[in-house]
Amino acid sequence: MDKLAENSSDWLKHESAFSHVTGQAVFIDDIAEPSGILYGQVVFSPVASGRILRLDCEQARKTPGVHAIISSKDIPGENQMGPVIHDEPCLADSELSFIGQAVCLIAAETPEAGRKASSQIIFETESYEPVLDIRTAIAKKSFFGPERVILRGDPEKMFENCQNVIQGELETGAQEHWYLETHASLCIPGENDEMTVFSSSQHPSETQAVVAEVLGISRNLVTVDVKRMGGAFGGKETQANHIAAWAALLAKATNRPVKIRFTRDEDQKYTGKRHPFLGKYKAGFDDNGKLLATIIHLFSDGGAATDLSWAILERALFHVDNAYYIPNILVTGQVCRTNLPSNTAFRGFGGPQGMAVTEYILDTIARKLGKDPTEVRHLNFYSSGECAYTHYGKEVVNNRLPLIYEKIMVSSDYLARRKKIDDFNRQHEFIKKGIALTPVKFGISFTTSFLNQAGALVHIYQDGTVNVNHGGTEMGQGLHTKMKHIASKEFGISANYVRIEATSTGKVPNTSATAASSGSDLNGMAISIAINKLKERLALVASDVLNETTGFKIEPVSLHFVNNQVIWKENPDISISFKSLIKTAYLKQVSLSATGYYRTPGIHWDREKGRGNPFYYFAFGMAVSEVELDVLTGYTHLTRTDIINDVGNSLNPEIDLGQVRGGFIQGLGWITTEDIKHDNKGNLLNYSPDTYKIPVIADIPEVFNVELLETEPNPGTIHGSKAVGEPPFMLSLSAWMAIRDAVSAVAGPGREIKLGIPATNEKIQLCLEELKSENKNTQK
Amino acid sequence: MSLQNSTVRFLLNNTPFEVDLSNHADFQPTTTILNFLRSRHGYKGVKEGCAEGDCGACTVVVAVPDGHKKLKYRAINSCLVFLPWLHGKQLITVESLARGQNLHPVQQLLVDHYGSQCGFCTPGIVMSLFELFKSRQEPTRDNAIRALSGNLCRCTGYQPILEVAIKTLESNHEDHFSENEKMVLDSLLSIQNQSLSIKSGKQTYLKPSGLKEALQLRFSRPDAVIASGATDIAVRQSKKFEFLPEILDISGIDELKFFTEDDDGWTIGSGMPIEDLWQLSVDKIPMFDEVFRVFASHQIRNLATLGGNIASASPIGDTLPVLMALNAAVELENIKGRRTLPVEQFITAYRQTAMLLDEIIRSVYIPKPPANSLFRFYKVSKRKELDISTVSLAAMLDLSKENKINKVILTYGGMADRPARALKTEKWLSGKLWTPEIVKEASLLLASDFSPISDARSGKEARNIFARNLLMKLFVETNEIAVNNG
Question: CB 3.0–4.6 Å: which of A144, A262, B200, B434 could bond A335 by disulfide?
Answer without folding.
Answer: A144
